[in-house]
Amino acid sequence: MDRVSLLIGPIGQLVTAKSMPWRYGDPILVLENAGIAVNGDKITDVGSWDSISRKYEGKCRIPAEESLVTTGLVDPHTHLLFAGSREDELELKLEGVPYEEILRRGGGIYRTVSATVSATDDELRRILLTRLFEVAKYGTTTIEVKNGYGIDPDQEIRLLRIINDSSVNAPIDIIPTYLVHVPPRNMDRREYINAVINSLDNARGLAKFVDVFCDEGAFTVRETRDLFKEALRRGFGLRLHADEIAYIGCSDLINEFSIASLDHLLNLPEQNVRLIAERGSVATLLPVTILSLMSSKRPPVKALRNAGAPIALGTDFSPNSWSLNMQYVMELATYLLGMTPMEVIMASTVNAAYSLSLRDRGILQPGYLADIVIWDVPNYRWLSYELGRNKALIVIKRGMILESTPSGTIISKECT
């Protein structure tokens, strides 16, 4: 028998995609009485428990007879690094106060920018790590983290450095993104775009992607095009906040650029649904934000599905949509967007990983990272069927079990 570091099994039900990206109707592997062999940080074998238990001897074994097992969740869209909060503004929104008036009173995004810029590096690292410990408890094993609350390019580089510094002590993997969020209120827009472009040289090695908030009240299509050209020239991948508030032509940029992910898409026109599918981009949907905006609009899930566009899901954690829980996203995607239980699993694992250009995770197959969640549910239908409970029983990151300490931090340990 071959010796491995970890055996998981027997497993009540194992669910995984067979390839990436996953499109609606693609094959899925669903195994009952399954087993997984892990050696180090990689999956060695997946199959029936009878076969796995005959072939491998594990240093440790985790039984999961009554559990669903999937790969770890991937959150591909977060604004995780900021200081302060804006809970008082929820009451203003409920009273019907327009966002423009909230801004005039000193609230909104510029309030968060002020709090973030004023915080020390140590304070921001502590805030970020606390949130990373929290997301890991819900089964997220890889997360994208944007800057964006510095506005000033020097501050945005500072935030990227903090994200990278924090990754050393983070329990899960971080994918940093340089977000060009909103224009400053006291600077010529063209001068600001040029300053951001100049800062991209300093962002090399600190961010994998450049993301632009292209929308009404944010950046124009022309400004986004200029930023994308310079980002590509410097080797960054591209992500795009598009068609959230209004359609002003932002998603049309799919005609000109290879964009890894187009996110939000509440006002996506039908002709661009087909283009997203044809270009191999991912449509990342953010149902918590729809809820927090109290919007009646929905992204065109059926059209995306029918066109064969890969769909991913993310939390969009921010001061305006405060949820670190990808399970909640999955639940909302089913009840709010009409996505099937299997569809939301694929959107939260393999497709979310694909949207971040990660090809080594999101699937339970030999050679992939051993990012695994053992769930306190009997089958895949339960994950988005049951509402409001943390259903993650055991979270495994790179072959190591993540465990909460009394202080609230997360540590990695070998199975014993």
Automatic annotation (TrEMBL):
SUPFAM superfamilies: Composite domain of metallo-dependent hydrolases (SSF51338), Metallo-dependent hydrolases (SSF51556). InterPro entries: Amidohydro_3 (IPR013108), HutI (IPR005920), Metal-dep_hydrolase_composite (IPR011059), Metal_Hydrolase (IPR032466). Gene3D superfamilies: Metal-dependent hydrolases, Urease, subunit C, domain 1. Its EC number is 3.5.2.7. GO terms for biological process: L-histidine catabolic process to glutamate and formamide. Keywords: Cytoplasm, Histidine metabolism, Hydrolase, Iron, Metal-binding, Zinc. It is an enzyme of class 3 (hydrolase). It comes from the Archaea. One of its GO terms (molecular function) is imidazolonepropionase activity. GO terms for cellular component: cytoplasm. Pathway: Amino-acid degradation. Residues 113-377 form the Amidohydrolase domain. Transmembrane segments: none annotated. Pfam families: Amidohydro_3 (PF07969). PANTHER family: IMIDAZOLONEPROPIONASE, IMIDAZOLONEPROPIONASE-RELATED. This is Imidazolonepropionase. It comes from Vulcanisaeta moutnovskia (strain 768-28).
